[in-house]
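Session log. Operator J.P. requested a structure for one protein chain; no other inputs attached. Running the standard single-chain path with token output.
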Amino acid sequence: MTQFNSRLAVAGLSIGLFFISHAATSSAAQQRDHRFQQNLEQLQQQEQIDQLQREQQLQQRLDEIQRRPEGQMQRQQQSNDRQQQIDQLQLDRQQNQLRQEQQLNQLREEEQLNQPQRRQQFDQFQREQQLQQLQQQQQIDQLQQQQEKNRLQP
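Structure written below.
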């Protein structure tokens, strides 16, 4: 359609130039030629404007198409990065939780294993304390006896 209009404008221009060059000297013919020349110039200008607008629209579409994949890829990459961060945080949390559970289990096992040993150690400590107390009591008794003897002796 636009090629047809362009050809029509060129044909009109050619015809117009022909009439202008061979125009009659009458004022009516001159006015007609002048109006035709103006109309032809307006058509040419309008064709140029339309062509520039079409080129501008095509360039804008091309620019949009070229920007879209980058924007989509960038958004997709950002989304992937965020998902990786979330996944890493969840993995870290799970590993920490597992490590804490393992430590707790180990402490429980040590507690269970050490409980009899601790009981034995406590019993041994008690016996030693009792023995010490008995020894101290014996020393006290001996000292008291000796003091008693010393008092009774002249």
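Operator note: The chain has one domain: 2-122.
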